[in-house]
Amino acid sequence: MSSEAANTVMLTTKCSSGCTHCPFSSPDLEKLFLSPAMVQKIMSQHPERLAVLSGGEPFEHPEISEILKNLSKQTIPFRIATGGFVDLTPWINKLKFLSRPTGTLQGISMGTDVLSSRVNHSKWAPIWKNNIRLFFESQIPYSLTFSIGPDLDFTRLNLWKWTDLFDGKPEFIYLRYSKKELLQEWLHKIQSNFEAIPIIQDDIFPYS
Ligand code: SF4
């Protein structure tokens, strides 16, 4: 992974998951989509940086197949940040093809917001879990992102009990937080459930 700051490319402002704490769920937010050509242009402005393709939800972009196709023709390392609630079955072979060591996809960053008690997770949890299984079976590297806020918890489904799922381990855990006082509590939870998985902490958190 590059040591430079990442080049974040927001493919779209659309996200249908309905996380009430997130600005992308606002009904007033205009749904915007970068063209596939513009995605390539923004990435190529900083070829030395890791590109992070994010949203909104990248897999709700109507031209995501074209965007993925273009990514196989370039050499810039990139990650894709997804909320994990879109079934990735249609794209899994393409993602496998794009992944390192042969491709430049460094990994998928899986958000956990749609699993929390602040969202009606009942329809999203099976899809999210299946996506993790697809990564494991296809040997696509992935990480987990926890965006820690005062109202985040996973008590309705007990994420921490999914030990069989996480046998296909995340490469690292990205921990974003808004209040330092919550950090120790979450570090303890994550370390006791994921043991030796590296944790990257980031105090930039836009939803406080
Ligand atoms: S899945 Fe992520 S981007 Fe989408 S509404 Fe939830 S927190 Fe926001």
In short:
By secondary structure, the chain is α/β, with parallel strands linked by helices. The chain is built from 5 helices and 7 strands, in the order βαβαβαβαββαβ. Helix 1 crosses helix 2 (64-71).
Produce the secondary structure layout.
Blueprint (H helix, E strand, L loop, with lengths): L6 E4 L25 H10 L5 E4 L9 H8 L6 E5 L9 H7 L6 E7 L13 H14 L3 E7 L24 E5 L2 H15 L4 E4 L6
Parallel strand pairs: 1-2, 2-3, 3-4, 4-5, 5-6, 6-7
The protein binds iron/sulfur cluster.
Iron/sulfur cluster binds next to loops.
Number of helices: 5
- Total strands: the figure is 7
- Which strand-content bin applies to the residues? 15-25%
Order of helices and strands: EHEHEHEHEEHE
Radius of gyration: 16 Å
CATH architectural name? Alpha-Beta Barrel
Overall structural class, as computed from helix and strand content, comes to alpha/beta
User: What is the assigned CATH homologous superfamily?
Assistant: Aldolase class I
Bound molecules: iron/sulfur cluster
CATH-assigned fold name: TIM Barrel
> What is the 3D form?
globular
Low-confidence stretches: none
CATH class: Alpha Beta
- Give the distance, in angstroms, between the N- and C-terminal Cα atoms: 28 Å
Structure, explained:
This protein has a single domain (6-202), classed as Alpha-Beta Barrel (TIM Barrel). The protein contains 5 helices and 7 strands. It has helices spanning 36-45, 64-71, 92-98, 125-138, 180-194, and strands at 7-10, 51-54, 78-82, 105-111, 142-148, 173-177, 199-202. The protein is globular, with a radius of gyration of 16 Å. The mean pLDDT is 91. The protein is α/β, with parallel strands linked by helices and 208 residues long. The structure holds iron/sulfur cluster. Residues 15, 17, 19, 22, 24-25, 55-57, 83, 111, 113-114 line the site of iron/sulfur cluster.
